[in-house]
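hiii, so i know i said id send this last week but things got crazy w the move. better late than never?? heres the sequnce for the chain we talked about at the cafe, plus the structure i predicted for it. fair warning i was half asleep when i ran it
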Amino acid sequence: MNRRPVQVIAVSGGKGGVGKTNVAINLSIALAEAGKRVVILDADFGLANIDVLLGLRSSKTIEDVLSGDCSLQEVMLTGPAGIKIIPASSGTRRLTMLSSLEHAGLIRAFSDIAEQLDVLIVDTAAGISDSVVNFVCAAHEVLLVVCNEPSSITDAYAMIKLLNRDFGRSRFRIVANMVADDAEGLQLFETLNSVCRQFIDVALIYTGAVPFDQNLRDAVRQRRPVILNAPSSVSARALRALGNKLLAWPLPSRVEGHLLFFVEQLTAMDVSNRAAVEHNYE
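okay and structure toks below
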């Protein structure tokens, strides 16, 4: 049995284009550099791209695990700094649309790797689909990535409101991405926090800011994490600072950590109820 807690962190953003996948990848590497054993689950089943962003090629995905063709261990890719990636194939069925046998198989698959990781980073899809909501609700921590655009703030607020109102989620950690500096990042956080305080009872925690940086764009084109490609750049330093903050976050109290609880919660959620919530959401 794994005697060390496993922390599950969902990285989401409410909308596309806010840079959440780059944040997820670089934070994972920062944690790995600090000695943590990190696995990234690519949970964007409509547009899976973590392996592409890292210049990796996957011959198998989590879909093959569900079909019984291979183990989760065989699916995982090794990325920079030793991080592991569980790739998803674009257009695959969602993890919430599984039979009872597949549910049990997925829980068993994650149980088999529990002793090999300290942190599971879940990179969700954009939006507030039933799949995104499932992953965020099941995770131990929620990290929302926002940028200084009205649509990003509006969509982040909509996601926070939905998760709080319908699922009782009350704590969200916020990263301001692609801002000019820390001052703009804090101002962006205060704008979102002010709106939330007026209408919903939640606690938003400012985790930090990642400045807009051409080095990061260059790294993406080279399929390299900026934290390794340009380690002294402003974005890399900011992302490493965020990683250091993550190291201080409280760990799950249960012996096996949050990993198996995460998978059990994920697979137990009812898809039809989730879809109905989204349909009625205003």
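btw The first strand starts at residue 7 and ends at 12. thought thatd interest u
miss u guys!!
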